[in-house]
Amino acid sequence: MTINLTGSNDDVEATDALARTGDDQDQMSRGRLTMAWYGTASAFFFVYIGAAMASAYGTVNAIIGIVLTIIAYGLINSVLSRYAINNRTTVAQFSRTILGNAGSAIAMIIFALIAIYYAVFEGSIVAYAFMTAFGGEMWVWSLVVVVYSTPLIIGGVRRFLDKINGILMPIYFFGLVAAVIWAGVQYGFTDAWLTQAPDVPVPLSMGGPGWLATFAGYMGVWIMMMFTMDFASLGKRKDIAYHQRVTFGPLFYVLAYGFSAFVGIFLTFTIPGLEASETGLAGGLVSLMGILGLIVVIATQTRINTANYFLGAANLRAFGEKVFKINMPNIVWVLLSSVIIFLFMLLPVVEYLLIALAWQGVLVTAWVAIALTHILLGRWQNEEHSAIGDQHYKAFNNNGLIAWVVATLVGIVMLQLGTFNPDLAGIGATWGPILTAVSAALVYGILWKTNPVSRTGLIKVVGA
What we know:
By secondary structure, this protein is mainly alpha-helical. It contains 19 helices and no strands. The radius of gyration is 22 Å and the shape is globular.
């Protein structure tokens, strides 16, 4: 006799098995997915952050920190991409496992808002470049950017991302190479960019060595891990090894972080008076190269914004459907997110970049650490396919929620150290992201061992 208090999970097992044995014909080919994903490498923010780290901690420390970042990103995303491809699991769907069905809504809205924020930020750079080249009002150019960006994702990411990024990729890469050569010819090739050191070195007592502070700074961009899962969910299982090595592995971050940082550092310390900021670098390119510089900026920012617009709209839709039960066509969600992006572009978002990065870094870093811990502790066993319906998940999964809350509180406290004592600001900035990740993994790992019933968000069948 079986007493079923929650509903049978037989159909869950059937759905999971059928989804795993089905073919991957509707998934993206390895080349198309690689091209679509590599579009995210061209964010001008990556050019800026390398220059900013070199300005703050010196070029040598920045290079060491970036190398460690490339290694860490490659390893982590190798794990996350394998899981996402094998289960077609997006961030929203995976969050049901570690946070529960209702808890996953938190991850959805955070992911949507961060993607929208990046779309606003990167779009503002293009608008600023247009204004530098042609004059006019910022709001007009902001509207132009939104109007030409929105159609690129209407009809679905699979149709447009690979095509537009394939066209723009050579412009992005060779355009930045041309900018380096142009600046060197005009202002001279020296080793000033390589020997750059801060006027006042940051001692260990102020937070840690510069290379560690650089590594922690790049942890504020761990949103790329969440981007990875959503993109990887579109891949074919037969291409898992390829995507782990090439698409989402260290090679990508050599281009995204290594190459971009080199360009940013070289331009910042070669062009006289160039400010180490995104708008400063974008304006500097336009001033240096004229219309060619504007084309490079448009190419780089359009590539990354196809991803930002897509992920913002997709997660906004997932949140709206889950929480408010609003069902609308894809195009409506795309247009809604574009309107939100334009409205936010009217605000001075660029001025609040570092603050936004710090706060989002806490939430995202904790989520990534929990996700990575869950997959590694599970040893690739009992993975949950995205085809499993929401109704089979508990509203909340205590293990993940407790770990996320604890880690977030740790991160917030570290961020606020500087408000209590300015001398502690460096410690909070450097160690905040690191302790957030460590505490999230540690707490989740302990709960995994002590509370095994909550290792998954799936509802258990009660029977005798």
